[in-house]
Amino acid sequence: MYQISEVARLVNLPIPTIRYYETLGFIETPAKDARGYKMYRKQDVEYLRFIVHLRDTDMPLEQIKHYVHAYRLDDYSTCYAILQEHEQKMQLELAKRQMILEKIQYKVSHFSKLKGGGT
Domain HTH merR-type: where (predicted)? Predict the structure, then answer.
């Protein structure tokens, strides 16, 4: 069992974020010890690590919420569909960013030729 400060260190999240994720239902409300401190289980730490990994992929919290709910119901086909949808969204975002980068590179190259390297 872990206190929230230990969980924060283990998953590299600020304590307020852990509390917020708890209110969103990403982890169950932890039981309290005799002193009134919330005690987080190893399972809670693993869920939070997984959520951090999903956030690292820019998955929106609402989508993560659906994923966690489906996972808890053993609805793996929904989990897979959520991941596929997110992958497609990221592919589109990547293509958009690549076009933006190419435009910027063209502008830099064009400006460099016109103004002698920007000096």
Answer: 1-70
Paired residues of 67 in beta bridges? none
Whole-number Cα distances in Å, 72 to 4, 47, 96, 106: 23, 11, 34, 49
Structure tokens at 69: 């709910």
Query: Within its chain, how far is the Cα of 10 from the centroid?
Result: 16
Its pTM surpasses 0.85: no
The mean pLDDT of the chain is 92
From 23, 29, 30, 26, select the one nearest 69 (Cα to Cα). Answer: 26
Q: Judge whether 48 and 26 are in contact, CB under 8 Å.
A: yes
C-alpha closest to that of 68 among 93, 110, 76, 19: 76
Tokens found for residue 83: 């991941």
